[in-house]
Specification:
By secondary structure, the protein is an alpha/beta fold. It is 32% helix and 22% strand. Keywords: Hydrolase.
Length: 101
């Protein structure tokens, strides 16, 4: 199937916990849901951090003992903010970025 659609595909061991970086903006309902599912063991992932362009959910994240990262994004600094995000992905060994929205 991957060849047919010119896709790259990989098969991973489902027992290996993937390193995940969550991104959140001002809407926290998805973040709260993901954190709850992670906390009860329904999401077998390692959350390496949460990154946001706002501080709205910093306390929630820190209370879960997860590193919180703020990256300010404006129309003038978008390329620099994206570079910061990519650097964070590398530093944390992130394997999957999830937009909690």
């Amino acid at each position: 199937i991957a060849e047919k659609f010119a896709m790259d595909a990989e098969i991973h061991d489902a027992k290996k916990r993937m390193k995940v970086l969550l991104m959140v903006s001002r809407f926290g309902h998805c973040l709260n849901d993901l954190l709850y599912r992670w906390k009860i063991g329904a999401l077998p992932i390692d959350i390496v951090g949460v990154v946001s362009n706002h501080f709205d959910y910093q306390k929630v994240v820190v209370n879960h003992d997860i590193p919180f990262h703020h990256i300010k994004v404006t129309k003038d600094n978008k390329p620099q903010a994206e570079a910061q995000l990519l650097e964070l992905v590398e530093q944390t060994g992130t394997e999957l970025v999830v937009l909690a929205r």
